[in-house]
């Protein structure tokens, strides 16, 4: 049994209706992808599972759906206008572009670097002097490593803000520049007090939302891992200042276990402390997954102190204080954030699900999704498209279609139909044959072991309910 390369995943998800390059008939557009029917269904299930985790499993979290457009001052206050930059450099020889921070982080991961090296890097990076950063890269021979020793010809380091500016309304002055949000978190911060007051919430509590974010990424070579339009699932947990450390530890572990509950082996996951902290963070770790291209970030967990709320308080001149009735004092809460890239998470799930195995000398490829994430949950097939079998099969489809994601198909041999469902990860197929008409039994086929059993048609619904239950998932998470 083997897993797939990134090329396998890209080809498979395109061929079987999960992901398509955007506007492909015009040659595509870099780092933008469309979700096909099965990709969109998978994404919906992942969203639901995450939202249920936040709103139902953890009982102290409420939902929100803030607009993509926000007042331009938001991005000034949050620091995005000034500091949401990436540094990049091009090799003139290979014509390849590199993100400077990624280059150094990769170097640190693959080389035994000293504390002195780390300190020098952090100092150079924080200082923001591009010549000094270039000097550091050259002095430590990091550029040569990237280009396998033979490139000496590089451009200067350049800086680019990742936000997409746009104009709202007819005016075209600078003061009217709005931005497509580069993260969903700010929508939560500006609504913190409204939410707290209108629902009479007491600390600690969280606000969760899922939504689109946009970043003009400089380098986009890894499929849906890095997109210019993507979706985030973010939860900001507001706490009294002296509880920030405790809640940071709690969320690190709770979020790590979420991936384990999804079936990701512990060896494929790591908690990675940040090499350099973002301007807002007082502590931060990434949850990284072993993608076909190495261990990379899926989620960030950040202790943000009271940075965001106090910035908005200052910039808006509106008090953003919480009155703590137990302590009889008002203060700006601190925040611990969990920020997941939905598309990266889907890529992780696809990579983990992709299985290629040899069955009696023949290659078999299937997607081993957890049943509750599968785009199609049950496929219903009449063995042949005649003699009353389609009518009986359609009756069963109609009995199940509101409770499960059902796919119905009559064409092709039964073997081919099973194979097609394996390729999109359908956990169960039900076949209606001539005997069904006499004994009211059907064949239930399991995707993973390909076993087939005869079961009474009247029991199908209950059997499927058990198979698709998420109860064991919830049971394996910390409360
Ligand atoms: P990276 O270092 O990979 O650019 P980041 O540290 O800037 O990511 P955050 O700002 O912490 O990312 O965003 C939170 C999450 O949003 C990330 O963990 C990631 O899953 C997701 N994300 C960020 N940028 C992108 C993108 N361009 N495409 C897809 N997902 C993204």
Fold and architecture overview:
- The model has no long low-confidence stretch (mean pLDDT 93).
- α2 crosses α13 (342-353) and α6 packs antiparallel against α7.
- The protein is α+β, with helices and mostly antiparallel strands.
- The chain is built from 18 helices and 23 strands.
Map the helices and strands.
Elements: H1 6-15, E1 19-21, E2 33-35, H2 37-57, E3 61-63, H3 72-77, H4 80-83, E4 85-90, E5 97-99, H5 100-110, H6 115-127, H7 130-139, H8 142-146, E6 158-161, E7 164-167, E8 177-180, H9 185-190, H10 192-199, E9 205-214, E10 229-239, H11 244-261, E11 269-273, E12 283-291, E13 294-305, H12 307-316, E14 322-324, E15 329-331, E16 334-341, H13 342-353, E17 354-359, E18 362-367, E19 378-382, H14 389-400, E20 406-408, H15 414-424, E21 428-432, H16 434-439, E22 441-446, E23 452-456, H17 460-467, H18 471-475
Parallel strand pairs: 3-9, 19-20, 19-21
Antiparallel strand pairs: 1-2, 4-5, 4-6, 7-8, 9-10, 10-16, 11-12, 12-13, 13-16, 14-15, 17-18, 21-22, 22-23
Helix pairs in contact: 2-13, 6-7
The structure holds adenosine-5'-triphosphate (ATP).
Residues 183, 215, 217, 226-227, 230, 232, 297-300, 339-341, 343-344 line the site of adenosine-5'-triphosphate.
Strand order of the largest sheet: 3-9-10-16-13-12-11
Give the C-alpha Rg: 26 Å
> Sheet with the most strands?
7 strands, mixed
**Mean of the pLDDT scores?**
93
Q: How many strand elements?
A: 23
The helix fraction, in percent, is 25-40%
Shape: globular
Distance between the termini: 35 Å
Q: Which kinds of small molecule does this entry bind, naming each only once? A: adenosine-5'-triphosphate
Please count the helical segments: 18
Strand content: 25-35%
Low-pLDDT parts are none
Structural class category: alpha+beta
């Amino acid at each position: 049994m083997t897993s797939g390369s990134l090329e396998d995943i890209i080809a498979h998800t395109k061929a079987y209706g999960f992901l398509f390059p955007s506007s492909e008939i015009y040659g595509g557009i870099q780092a933008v992808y469309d979700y096909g029917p099965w990709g969109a269904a998978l994404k919906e299930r992942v969203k639901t599972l995450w939202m249920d985790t936040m709103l139902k499993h953890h009982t102290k979290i409420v939902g929100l759906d803030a607009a993509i457009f926000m007042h331009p001052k938001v991005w000034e206050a949050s620091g995005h206008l000034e500091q949401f930059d990436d540094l990049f450099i091009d090799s003139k020889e290979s014509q390849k572009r590199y993100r400077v921070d990624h280059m150094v982080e990769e170097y640190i991961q693959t080389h035994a670097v000293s504390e002195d090296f780390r300190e020098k890097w952090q100092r150079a990076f924080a200082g923001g002097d591009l010549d000094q950063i270039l000097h550091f890269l050259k002095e430590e021979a990091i550029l040569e490593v990237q280009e396998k020793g033979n490139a000496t010809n590089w451009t200067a380091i350049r800086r680019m803000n990742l936000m997409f500016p746009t104009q709202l309304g007819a005016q075209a002055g600078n003061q009217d520049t709005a931005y497509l949000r580069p993260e969903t978190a700010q929508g939560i911060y500006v609504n913190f007090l409204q939410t707290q007051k209108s629902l009479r919430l007491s600390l600690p509590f969280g606000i969760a939302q899922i939504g689109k974010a946009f970043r003009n990424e400089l380098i986009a070579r890894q499929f849906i891992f890095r997109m210019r339009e993507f979706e985030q699932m973010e939860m900001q947990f507001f706490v009294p200042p002296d509880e920030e450390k405790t809640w940071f530890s709690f969320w690190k572990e709770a979020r790590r276990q979420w991936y384990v509950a999804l079936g990701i082996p512990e060896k494929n996951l790591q908690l990675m402390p940040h090499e350099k902290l973002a301007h807002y963070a007082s502590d931060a770790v990434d949850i990284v997954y072993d993608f076909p291209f190495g261990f990379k970030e899926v989620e960030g967990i950040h202790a943000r102190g009271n940075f965001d709320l106090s910035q908005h308080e200052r910039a808006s001149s509106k008090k953003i204080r919480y009155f703590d009735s137990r302590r009889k004092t008002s203060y700006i809460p601190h925040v611990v954030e969990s920020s997941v890239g939905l598309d990266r998470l889907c890529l992780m799930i696809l990579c983990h699900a992709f299985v290629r195995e040899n069955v009696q000398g023949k290659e078999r490829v299937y997607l081993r999704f957890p049943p509750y994430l599968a785009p199609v949950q049950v496929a219903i097939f009449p063995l042949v498209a005649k003699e009353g079998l389609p009518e009986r099969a359609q009756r069963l489809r109609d009995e199940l279609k509101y409770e499960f994601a059902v796919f119905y198909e009559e064409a092709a041999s039964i073997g081919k139909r099973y194979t097609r469902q394996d390729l999109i990860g359908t956990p169960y197929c039900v076949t209606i044959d001539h005997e069904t008409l006499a004994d009211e039994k059907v064949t239930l086929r399991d995707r993973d072991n390909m076993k087939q059993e005869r079961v009474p048609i009247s029991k199908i619904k209950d059997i499927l309910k058990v198979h698709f239950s998420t109860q064991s998932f919830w049971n394996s998470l910390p409360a």
